[in-house]
Amino acid sequence: MEAFFTKAIEVRDLVKIYGGGVKALRGLSLSVEEGSIHAILGPNGAGKTTLIRILTTQLVPTSGSASIFGLDVVKRASEVRKLIGYVPQEVSLWTDLTGYENLLIYAKIYGIPPERRKDIVEEVLSMMELKEASNRLVKTYSGGMFRRLEIACALMAKPRLMILDEPTIGLDPSARKTVWEKILEYKKEYKTTVFFATHYMDEAEKYAGEVSLIVSGNVIETAPPDELRKKAGGDRVYLKLDKSIDGARDLLMKVEGLKIVRESGEEIEMIVNGALTVLPTIILALQSNGLQIKEIRIREATLDDAFIALTGKRIAEEEGNIRELISERKMIRRGA
Amino acid sequence: MMWQRLRELETIIAMAELELRRISHDPIELITRAVQPIFWIAIFGSVMARVRAFPSTGDYITFISPGVILQSSTFIALSYGIMLVFERESGVLKRLLSSPMPRSFIVIGRSLAGGLRASTQYIIVLIAAVAVGARITYDPLNLILGFLILIVASMGFTAMSILIASSLKTRERFMGIIGAITMPLFFASNALYPISVMPEAIQLVAYVNPLTYTVNALRALLVENSYAIGYDVAAIVLFDVISMLAALKLLHRIIE
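^ Those are the sequences you sent over. The predicted structure of the assembly is below.
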């Protein structure tokens, strides 16, 4: 009965204030359905990692509550730990052991019975395509291999909930893609709930069923990516005509849901709701008024546009800047 | 339920296995660690033996051999916490702390791991000591008992190290403190000279110093061929219990 109604994650009014007075979470609430893929997306320092560390029972919140499948993460921490598979943002395996040894030790830590250990280790190794490399020391692995091994490790206990903190941070695009393929493959087979933090918008957009936008320790919006994109107000359309746009302005103003954001000489930039269906009408109208279009560019609204529309801020792109991110994290951890 | 408990105990063994596998991938470190104690015996021991500064000790090289083993193993055990500082900076500790393993097992398991790593010095230093003329018993029972006692004592020192790592959190502070406590721990003990030659204040320190009891036990077993080690073992076990409980109490600090 209980299991039928409980959410995979339920967070209410969560507040975390670190020793140094840093307010990482300010009354954050969210809930995650069992079986879904849920992303938390937000800029560096928004509180994503703090939320994850509370959910994985590493930190105790200052106030508010959080539960995993109905189990309170503070009061029933040891039961919660049996339900989750967690991959932290940083390197989380022993690099001076081989891949196989890491998994074997963790199989023991997770309490997998001796007679099943070997099979499970083999299974996750082949699923993550790491079988050949399994007898090499982990420090010789590439970034993508390392991440796959860490995920393999978290999967061994067949968790009901996977919690991934920046699962693809610092990886090149093809390694990112492989990592996600593997996560989805596993999810499909075991119906696991996946909860992940990212600052890569494209990943949240592509893989998550629902996205929570997090800013300054609060969720400002939770919705499927398509709906979130609509919050941006529409897609960006850029037109270049053969003569001054003066004659076109009145025509364009009549189109419903169209907003001109910039114009100069023959060029005009606007935000159009559902550009792909509205655009043919616009083109037709312009042409029948003797205006020729020399160039059209459409950029569909991204989550970043939605984020800007909702908060006035960008989600920072950290790709070249992981080191800074990590050192900042350290400062927070030290309570500086 | 009983079966469940036993299964959980296996995770402690897994921590020890982790350490042994690590050592097997890089045994050189332990050998380099043994170089300094070998010089202690060969140089300091030979010189002091000629001076005959402590007539009550008998053959001086033989006398200091257990002490020098302890010097080396204690330093390794006390440094073990740096591993946790590294694991704290990476994600290893986060993963461990959110795994189903009880947290007390992290302390016990890692203490055992550190104890094993430290006790490798027993073998290397003993062989070196015999090579330069120390008269050590060949009775296998004594040798094995001595090894086990060293492992148990080193577990206590490792737990102390975990405790320090949890409180200080950075390598710089950690290494500073370890340097500061190793020296008095060694010299305010009976490792290099009998307690009776010390000024009274330092004698007091020596009597609460767990190193003293470990050296006593090893000296009884290896040098005097005696099994009168009951009090020493009791003191070592008490030290283990106290340091592990304290380490467990402060472990949560390491990730906050």
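Chain B touches chain A through 29 residues (CB under 8 Å). Residues 31-51+59-255 of chain B form one domain.

Shout if you want it in another format.
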